Structure formats: structure tokens, C-alpha cells
Amino acid sequence: IKFDTPFTIGTSDFTLEGWVNFSSLSGNRCMFSFNEETSGLEFYFSLSGTAMKLYTPSAVHSFSTGTIAVDTWYHFAYVRSGTTVTLYWNGSSTGTATVTDSLSKNVWVGIWPDESSDDMHGYLEDLRFSNFERYTANFTPPTSSLEG
């Protein structure tokens, strides 16, 4: 899915969260991409083996998640606070990365615009994008639909 209206969050704080269930774990499985089809990459959240990866124009950041199984639901939350991005996997921080890039591109969900071999295989549910830092420490993932 492509959203044609760019997210113009710039370098502000944000939280991107939801539930994910993979039907295939081989290769990269792009969950979200904030980019243009022919221009520089902003953020590319993907799965590779037992790690979630965050690709930026200047670096690749890897967050270990431990073993991930197919047909299993996992809660994820990417939280940006200033220049620090934290990945929470099932409510636990898996690490941080320093990211100075601006976020103001179109959003692609479940696909990588020019590389169909990196498309996500599975399901995303109950997605929420907040323009603030929703989590600052480990938390218990929600058990009902996300609101607000």
C-alpha cells in the first residue's frame, strides 16, 4: 500500500507501532518504507533473520529480537526521541540508534517500492503513527485495539 500524501514529521519525535505476523522469514521483509520511488531512502524498517533493521541514508541499524517464528503475532514500536530511535519488541527495548535524518516522504506499507523481492509476507494489524514519543521505557503491549 502506498500513501500518496507525504508524512512531514521532519526530525520531530514519533512512535510507529502495531502488530506483525510473518508468513516468511527469508531475506529482507519490508514492513514500512518512507521514501520516493527514485530518490533517497529515509527509513526502511525490515526483518532479516532474527533482527529488525532500520535503514537510513547514512547507516544500517540492527536491533536483535531473538527468535522470530512464522504465524506468530509480535508487537513492535519504533520510538523516535530527538535523534534516538528505540525499537521495542513485545514491550522490551532491543536497542537504540542515532538517526538525524528528516522524515518527509511518502509511506509504503508492506512493500519496498522498487524491489518486490523485499516485500513483506504476512500481516500488519492495528497500526498507529503518533507524532510524539509514546514509550520511554519497557511496557506491557496492549491487548486490545490501539486508540488515539
Structure overview:
This protein is mainly beta and 148 residues long. Helix content is 0%, strand content 47%. It has strands spanning 2-3, 14-22, 29-35, 41-48, 51-55, 60-64, 73-81, 84-89, 92-98, 107-109, 122-130. The strands form two sheets. It has a six-stranded antiparallel β-sheet, with no helix packed on it. Strands 9-8-7-2-11 form a five-stranded antiparallel β-sheet, with no helix packed on it. A hairpin with a 2-residue loop joins strand 7 (73-81) and strand 8. It is globular. The model is unreliable at 38-42 (pLDDT under 50).
Question: How many angstroms separate the termini?
Answer: 22 Å
Rounded to an integer in angstroms, the radius of gyration calculated over CA atoms is 14 Å
Number of helices: 0
Mean pLDDT: 79
Keywords, separated by commas or semicolons:
globular; mainly beta; 148 residues; six-stranded antiparallel sheet; single chain; five-stranded antiparallel sheet; 0% helix
Topology:
Blueprint: E1 2-3, E2 14-22, E3 29-35, E4 41-48, E5 51-55, E6 60-64, E7 73-81, E8 84-89, E9 92-98, E10 107-109, E11 122-130
Describe the structure concisely.
By secondary structure, this protein is mainly β.
